[in-house]
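User: Could you go from structure to sequence for me? I need the amino acid at each position, not a summary. Structure tokens:
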């Protein structure tokens, strides 16, 4: 299953971009004081923190999946000198 993903570098780039955007959104919501889109609108701090936690959780879930993806692929085994015994 994981070997098919290696054949599509666009998927890996999209996956990394979504992870980076989730991390940026989380940091913006946690550390940003002003609203960039609408300066006159001030959302509640509690809402910003919950939304930042949601985006951080998305980023962590993406980062948690990547070591499993890389360590279970045949490319990693080939690079480390292991033979692929699957048929």
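Assistant: Here is the amino acid at each position, in order:
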């Amino acid at each position: 299953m994981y070997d098919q993903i290696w054949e599509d570098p666009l998927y890996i780039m999209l996956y990394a971009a979504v992870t980076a955007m989730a991390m940026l959104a989380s940091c913006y919501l946690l550390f940003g004081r002003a609203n960039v889109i609408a300066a006159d609108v001030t959302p509640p701090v509690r809402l910003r923190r919950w939304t930042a936690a949601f985006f951080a959780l998305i980023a962590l879930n993406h980062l948690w999946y990547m070591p499993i993806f890389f360590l279970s692929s045949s490319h990693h085994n080939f690079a480390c000198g292991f033979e692929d015994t699957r048929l």
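One structural detail worth keeping in mind: The chain has a mean pLDDT of 77.
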